[in-house]
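G., the chain you wanted modeled:
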Amino acid sequence: MSGRPAILASFALALAALPALAEDCKQARAIYTDPAGGYELRFEPVGSEAAVTSNHFKISVQGTGLSLDGVVLPSGEPERPNGIVMHNCPTGDVTGAELTACTVWQGPIYAVDSAGTIGLLQAEDAAAAPQILLPDFGPSLRASSAWGEGKATSDSSDVFRFKGCAG
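Predicted structure as tokens:
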């Protein structure tokens, strides 16, 4: 019986080390990783100052210091969340060609629930999705200005799984 408290304490420590459940986290604070662990997608709060953007995120390439900026904009008919991932985009008055050159990926962003059902990414105040799907992100990354020596050089999946919740 003396070993039982030690086993229970070890189990409690193991549970504490597990990432929070997605449903306990708001989308604005959710952190995801690709299956290989080379890429981290981290949502950040937009707040009320953003009139157009419904979500903001960054994708970090582990071990490189490379960080890509992402925004989610409602668009289309019917309206749905579309994302844009950018690398070193100029600010201010920019041309369409300049934006095209710095765009890494663009397309619809999907949320995948715990049953595997694919739906649309919800607003930042909704519960975090267990998985995020960025269709064709990996191939788009390889064809972008963010790929190459000193930048991203390992493939990314299009699927990012919930890792935890930022404080």
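The first strand starts at residue 30 and ends at 33.

Shout if anything looks off.
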